[in-house]
């Protein structure tokens, strides 16, 4: 068995050292880990998990400290460890990316790692989105797809279409399409709904709309949701998850549709989805 680990931090190093006593470990970039064909993967941090989604990982992945919406093991000090008590007279209450895990965090990580290596876990299937621009595939997204006006204090006009019908047209700084996984991120910050994983839908939310009565929408993900820039008053950029991928010109179709999934490991220590 090979366990993959993606992420660069003291927490990732601790997980690698702990796992090496039990199994073969590939601790590397997302692309290198996927190439190693691991049986399971630990992703430390949100960026590591998003990178694995881009690489088309087939193995189940345990997120660690990835934030709300992703599940996995949280190292938030406000949450208790496996024993229900995070107190420790010799450790600080929380760790950072550059510090070793505290005693309570080590206990939580160790318990989750044991379950992962023993294959004693469930999985949640998280939607991946395929994104095309004018018919050309530009990449997948696990959390969200966003068109955003790059210049400060400049707005543009956007249109949203679903199943061949226009859903809305509005002036705003941008528009975001969120999967259920990403609905606790940009979509929520823009006033959108929280979407349950496995519901087969995406949330579409204007970002800082010019009008005060602009709605947000829950649309089916099994057919393309099409975004267009109707009027460009500043450069409009396309973001997929945590990456800016290109500029989008007016009247160019950006299509977003469900295309595969990523299996996220759920263990006793995993953060509940709706916990914020």
From TrEMBL:
Cross-referenced InterPro entries: ATP-NAD_kinase_PpnK-typ_C, NAD/diacylglycerol_kinase_sf
Region (Disordered) residue spans: 68-108
Pfam families with a match to the protein in the record: NAD_kinase_C (PF20143)
Ranges of biased composition (kind: Low complexity): 80-102
Keyword Kinase: yes
A Gene Ontology molecular function term of the record: kinase activity
Chain ranges passing through the membrane: none
Kinase keyword on record: yes
UniProt keyword list: Kinase, Transferase
Protein name per Swiss-Prot or TrEMBL: ATP-NAD kinase
Organism, scientific name: Halorussus aquaticus
